[in-house]
Design brief:
single chain, alpha+beta, ADP-ribosylation fold, three-stranded antiparallel beta sheet
Length: 198
């Protein structure tokens, strides 16, 4: 995607392991590696890798994924989430051409990551919860994560299909947004905030 086609830039922030500074210095670009995700999430990494794979499938329809990229890089659309870097991390303040960014509703992502139905609105959510209650389902994530979903295939499929709404910014559940990029280019970095130990 050529920079000359971009119509403006967006400010973003992300906290990353300081080890990526080497990637940026040597290659001018940083892309997430699977081992970084495994290191960050440890024993729950398989859960996140599965969720990120699902996210990647949808996000790549919004912003095409470059060859060789497997996972997204997560960013904040507000600075206050990133003010205090933690040990062995750096916070990047970026200005990125908008055409490279996928913006989503943070609350909707919370629904998807928990294997919940993403409603169209509060009324749709109320109806969905009534349906769960009618079937005696207290933990809707069990419809996806266990064999319980085999007994309610239509309900399970309805939940999975609703996850596509994550990428429809006309449907909002909350006020906070988040962003993803497929890569960070060195020339997008406006500022690098190091942890105090550095």
């Amino acid at each position: 995607m050529s920079d000359k086609h971009n119509k403006g830039k967006i400010k973003l922030w992300t906290r990353q392991n300081k080890g990526i500074l080497t990637d940026l210095e040597e290659h001018g670009v940083y892309r997430v590696k699977e081992e970084y995700i495994k290191e960050k999430f440890d024993t729950i990494a398989p859960f996140y890798l599965k969720a990120y794979k699902r996210y990647t499938e949808g996000a790549s329809k919004v912003v095409p994924k470059p060859e060789g990229v497997k996972y997204p890089i997560w960013l904040s659309t507000t600075e206050n989430m990133m003010l205090q870097p933690t040990e062995d991390t750096v916070v990047f303040h970026l200005e990125v051409p908008k055409d490279y960014v996928v913006i989503t509703d943070q609350e909707k992502w919370g629904y998807v990551i928990n294997y919940w139905y993403v409603p169209l609105n509060k009324e749709d959510e109320r109806k969905h919860n009534e349906e769960l209650k009618k079937y005696g389902i207290g933990d809707e994530s069990a419809l996806i994560m266990s064999s319980k979903g085999n007994f309610y295939p239509l309900l399970r499929d309805k939940i999975k299909k609703s996850w596509d709404r994550l990428f429809d910014n006309n449907i909002r559940l909350g006020d906070l947004t988040q962003a993803t990029l497929w890569e960070i280019k060195k020339d997008w970095i406006v500022d690098t905030i190091h942890s105090k130990e550095d």
